[in-house]
Amino acid sequence: MKDLLRTADLSRADVDLLLATAADFAKDPLKASSALAHRTVAIYMTKPSTRTRLSSETAVAHLGGTPIFIRGDELQLGRGETIADTARIISGYASALIIRTFAQSDVDELGANATIPVINALTDDDHPTQLLADWLTIQEKFGSNVSGRKFVYCGDGNNMSHAWLTMGAIMGAHVVAATPEGKWAPNADVVARAQEIARETGATIEISHDARAAAKDASVLYTDVWMSMGDPEAERAEKTKVLKPFAVTSDLMNLATSDAIFMHCLPAHRGEEVSADVIDGPRSVVWREALHRRTTIQSLLYHLVRGEIKGR
């Protein structure tokens, strides 16, 4: 597999390999410090970023490479050059391309035309690099055997809910997306694909519209911001009202297991999708989770450049 364009592209064997290497990089960030020596990695972002930018640039540097950060207004794409032509040009200069943007179709087109690995570091549809970081954090807490455990996402049925369901299916886990009904529920095609993968792996995929029922006996409660980049501001009042019952508060955490953890892909809005006492409390692992954005992107670059990710 040349690229990581979607979470669903990964096999369980791929994820196990990536997480094992990422765990090694967590212990020794410079373990493969010459893997990208004298090579560059382009990092193209049309959305603002804290964790993705810092983790990507640091990961490249720890592998001995040079990161080249490119903003959305710095390429000729804005003046009519095609995505396909841009992919060919970048392929001549860099050894990999990390992209964070809006449309999944743009990432797909880059992957189809680039001769180097393309890594989806977030689109409006998916967030595979975040889920690798999430599952490394989960395995540090609970180990690789997740039988008998339930992993719950609460909130907007957005790209994070899509990636959460898909990765849970790949990992053979019992995963739940607790979201409102209607237009803020997860995409039906994504749910169907997760269920298809689950039939192969033995996972349980569940969609709930009751946060309290979903949270009962959960090992993880996960959430994301209610207003994502690109969401219409005119929908804020309605969306906030509909999502309020899905906020992760201490009352909701108390329904989970005694060893349950709280996770969030960040940035967080305390008092909206999560209460301050939860995200800043002893059950929160959000800072370790954020650290693993670097370790897992480092692992992805290491294995994709070497052609060691096989895909489904």
UniProtKB/TrEMBL annotation:
Q: Which UniProt keywords apply?
A: Transferase
Which residues are in the Aspartate/ornithine carbamoyltransferase Asp/Orn-binding domain?
A: 148-303
Give the protein's recorded name.
Unannotated protein
Q: Give the organism's phylogenetic lineage.
A: unclassified sequences, metagenomes, ecological metagenomes
**Which organism's genome codes for this protein?**
freshwater metagenome
Gene3D superfamilies attached to this UniProt entry: Aspartate/ornithine carbamoyltransferase (3.40.50.1370)
Q: What Gene Ontology molecular-function terms does this entry list?
A: amino acid binding; ornithine carbamoyltransferase activity
Domain Aspartate/ornithine carbamoyltransferase carbamoyl-P binding per the UniProt entry, residue ranges: 2-140
Keyword Transferase in record: yes
Tell me the GO BP annotations in alphabetical order. citrulline biosynthetic process; L-arginine biosynthetic process via ornithine
